[in-house]
Structure formats: C-alpha cells, structure tokens
Specification:
Blueprint lengths: L10 H31 L5 H23 L19 E3 L6 E3 L3 E3 L4 E3 L4 E3 L4 E3 L4 H27 L12 H4 L1 H31 L4 H6 L2 E2 L7 H9 L25 E2 L1
Antiparallel strand pairs: 1-2, 3-4, 5-6, 7-8
Length: about 260
C-alpha cells in the first residue's frame, strides 16, 4: 500500500490539530493510568475492556493522522482531460486552471480540490473526494472513544470497587476528581460536536450534496437518488462494508452509476 503524505502550511491549522491531539493524549494516558489498568490489576474488570479502549484510541488517532495527511483530491498543474469528459470540466476563476465540475478552490490551501466538501482546521486539511472517507472514520471513532471515556468516567465515580493498592502520594491519584472532571468535560464536547458533524456528513453523502454546495445552493437534483449502500460505497471506494472501518488501506475511485448532478 503506497500512501502519499500531504501537509498544509497553516499555523492556525497546526494550532487546531494540536488541540485535538492534546485531548486524545490526555484521555489515552489518563483513563488507562487512573481507571483501566489499576482495576484490571486487582481483577475488577476483564482484559477485554482494556484492549478495546486501546484499540479505539489507536483507530481514532490513525484516522486523524490519515485524514490530516492524505491528499484530499488536489488537482494537477496540467491535468489531462479525456475528450469524452471535456463538457464536465470548467475553468477556475481563481487559479486559472481547468477542473472537474463540483470541484472548489480552497483559499486556505491555495488550490482546487475535487468534490471539496469543506476545509477543516481541526485536521488542517481540506475534506475532498480522496479523503472524505477518512474524515468520516475520524468522526465515527472519535464518537466511540469519547463515549467509551464518558462511560469509564461514570463507572469510576459510581460503579467500580475502590482500589486497595494505590499510591496516595501519586499526582494522578491525589488529583483524581479534577482530572476525571476534565476528562468528562472534553468527552462531552468531543462526543456532542462529532455526533452533530457525523450526522450532517452522512446526510450530505446520502443526498449527494457537499457542504459547500449546500451553503451556496449550486446544485439541483437530476435523476433518481442513489441507495445508501451505493452512496457510501462510492465515498469509501469499496462495496465491502467491513473495509469502511479500516483506516490502514488505500482508496480507489468507485463509480456505481452514471447519473450525475450538474450546475444550475
């Protein structure tokens, strides 16, 4: 699997993605150190809970890395336009380059992106045709990890048995209440924000409308709607649903129908 890294030079984007990484590091260190590993060592919880948390954390940060470094669909400087598709291309009035319809010029990145949905500062990258599936995975696994964290925070407060062998002089133990409250606050913010974003993204995919098109009212429907399986398979580049959840792979374009949408 050959993966090309794509980096955007944007200090504001670096700051935003640093905040996201801080939240991930905070909970990925705190929850195992304060909750999972001590209770597992005393036999209060099974090892499956520990493994599942680390797996959710790994998938979340992997999706973040892939979404932030994957090429979103940047157009080449001198694209070769097939003769049969010339009617589906247009000239960008900002960079004076030919681009497929439904592409958009990102002022933050300085280039056109195929089927651009939006520019996301939290991943310091555009969300376009080639990395939209990774952005969906990031939203999904962030919800899973945040909800898992909130459940463990609640159990630490009200359900788990008291620990008998802990070092009361340890910083994490002495400030347990404040640290768990911080974890709960960040978990609620991340879960609420990502749930709303994930819902709007899936809704847009099923309606075959990007965020930019929805805000600008650029497109209208022509032809029948696709099924949800066809819409999601086109975004993820495969019909195999199990592969929709794996960030450790490459994506190939998948066209399932010939019906397209055009500019008004």
């Amino acid at each position: 699997m050959k993966l090309r890294l794509h980096f955007v030079v944007d200090p504001m984007g670096w700051f935003c993605i640093s905040m996201v990484l801080f939240v991930w590091l905070y909970n990925s260190f705190l929850i195992p150190t304060l909750v999972l590993l001590p209770h597992y060592s005393e036999g209060h919880i099974p090892s499956a809970l520990v493994v599942c948390y680390y797996l959710a954390s790994l998938l979340c940060v992997s999706a973040l890395f892939r979404a932030s470094t994957a090429d979103p669909g940047k157009l080449a400087q001198d694209p070769k336009i097939p003769l049969a598709e010339r009617d589906n291309w247009e000239l960008c009035n900002k960079c004076n380059m030919m681009r497929p319809k439904r592409s958009h010029h990102c002022s933050r990145c300085g280039h056109c992106v195929r089927r651009m949905d939006h520019h996301c500062p939290w991943i310091n990258n555009c969300v376009g045709e080639d990395n939209h599936w990774l952005f969906l995975q990031l939203c999904f696994y962030t919800q899973v990890l945040s909800l898992y964290t909130l459940v463990l925070d609640f159990c630490q407060y009200y359900y788990f048995q008291p620990l008998s062998s802990v070092d009361r002089a340890d910083f994490v133990v002495r400030h347990e209440l404040a640290l768990l409250r911080g974890s709960c606050f960040m978990g609620l913010i991340m879960f609420g924000g990502m749930s709303s974003l994930f819902y709007t993204q899936v809704k847009g995919i099923l309606a075959d409308t990007t965020t930019i098109e929805k805000m600008s009212h650029l497109l209208e429907d022509i032809g029948p709607r696709r099924s949800w399986q066809q819409a999601m398979a086109e975004v993820f580049g495969t019909r195999w649903k199990i592969l929709w959840f794996l960030p450790f792979r490459s994506r190939q374009p998948l066209r399932l129908n010939l019906t397209s949408r055009s500019h008004v």
